[in-house]
């Protein structure tokens, strides 16, 4: 009670001891800070999601490779299953890379918009501080009967008040529009996330259904003719399942004109440095893209110089690259995607 009385008495003497406030702006800025906090949380949750997706993708690749290892090499559909495993791993890697790139681009763009708006808020804060400081000096000069100084401060105060009023009006409008833009962003993000998942599962379904749509041939049969005919149908189905992706990446064949067949995915890796291929058997790499480290069934095809690895890119291109240009992605590690 005593402190309140003293504060009120002091304000009466000095004119005011508190800073100027605009209730609407204070509330809008508080809401802005809440939205900024939510965006930071959104980025953290997205990174957790992509990491969990990566763990599942790697587990799926290992699981399908294990199922593949259960069958004897004499099974006529061995190469078809190999192609199935490669296609599924490629689609998963391609989806994760595309999804991660698109979402991080959107998130970073929104962070830039928040930084721009924060700059406008800081401009208003500094102008308000200058106005309050000048106002306190003005009232103090009036008490000391310093007319010349009072007149000068009065002019400065009027100019600052006019400028502050204009900035406050613009900031109120900008913050209201900014909130609407942020909501539009989240609506579009929701649509994009669902759409990209739909595209991925559709491609995954096409590959799996092409394989499961026909009864796999058994190791022994009463009709060699039916067996051979079935083999051709299965191989044709497997090739057609990847026809769309090959149409989208016509350069894949040119990058690896004579690549061996019969290989398996060892694990996924993330590129940490750009690399420009110097020979036709090398891969062009872009930092932060995902690749699959592979091993050929024919050991002669695995020959390479020390420090180099064979890999398959998301577009189906196969070649060698310097091993120290990528890092392995482990399931039990949390890496920044």
UniProtKB/TrEMBL annotation:
InterPro entries: AH/BAR_dom_sf, Amphiphysin, SH3-like_dom_sf, SH3_domain. Residues 143-170 form a coiled coil. SMART domains: SH3. The keyword Coiled coil applies. The keyword Ribosomal protein does not apply. GO terms for cellular component: plasma membrane. GO terms for molecular function: phospholipid binding. Keywords: Coiled coil, SH3 domain. Residues 220-259 are annotated as: Disordered. Residues 264-331 form the SH3 domain. PROSITE patterns: SH3. This is SH3 domain-containing protein. It comes from Rotaria socialis. The lineage of its organism: Eukaryota, Metazoa, Spiralia, Gnathifera, Rotifera.
């Amino acid at each position: 009670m005593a402190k309140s009385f003293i504060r009120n008495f002091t304000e009466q003497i000095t004119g005011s001891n508190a800073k100027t406030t605009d209730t609407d702006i204070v509330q809008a800025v508080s809401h802005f800070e809440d939205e900024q906090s939510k965006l930071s949380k959104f980025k953290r949750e997205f990174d957790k999601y992509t990491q969990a997706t990566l763990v599942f993708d790697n587990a799926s690749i290992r699981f399908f490779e294990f199922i593949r290892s259960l069958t004897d090499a004499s099974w006529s559909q061995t190469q078809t299953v190999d192609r199935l495993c490669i296609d599924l791993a490629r689609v998963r890697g391609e989806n994760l890379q595309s999804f991660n790139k698109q979402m991080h681009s959107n998130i970073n763009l929104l962070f830039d918009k928040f930084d721009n708006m924060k700059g406008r808020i800081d401009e208003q804060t500094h102008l308000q501080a200058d106005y309050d400081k000048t106002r306190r000096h003005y009232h103090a000069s009036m008490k000391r009967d310093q007319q010349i100084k009072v007149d000068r401060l009065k002019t400065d105060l009027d100019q600052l008040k006019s400028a502050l009023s204009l900035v406050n009006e613009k900031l109120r409008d900008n913050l209201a529009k900014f909130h609407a833009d942020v909501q539009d962003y989240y609506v579009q993000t929701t649509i994009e996330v669902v759409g990209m998942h739909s595209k991925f599962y559709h491609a995954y379904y096409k590959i799996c259904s092409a394989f499961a749509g026909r009864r796999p041939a058994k190791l022994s049969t009463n009709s060699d003719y039916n067996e051979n005919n079935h083999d051709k149908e299965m191989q044709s189905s497997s090739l057609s399942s990847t026809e769309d992706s090959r149409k989208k990446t016509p350069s894949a064949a040119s990058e690896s004109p004579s690549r061996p067949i019969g290989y398996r995915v060892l694990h996924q890796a993330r590129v940490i440095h750009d690399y420009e291929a110097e020979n036709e058997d090398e891969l062009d790499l872009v930092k932060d893209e995902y690749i699959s480290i592979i091993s050929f069934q024919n050991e002669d095809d695995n020959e390479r110089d020390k420090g180099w690895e064979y890999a398959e890119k998301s577009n189906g291109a196969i070649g060698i690259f310097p091993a120290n240009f990528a890092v392995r992605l482990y399931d039990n590690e949390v890496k920044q995607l």
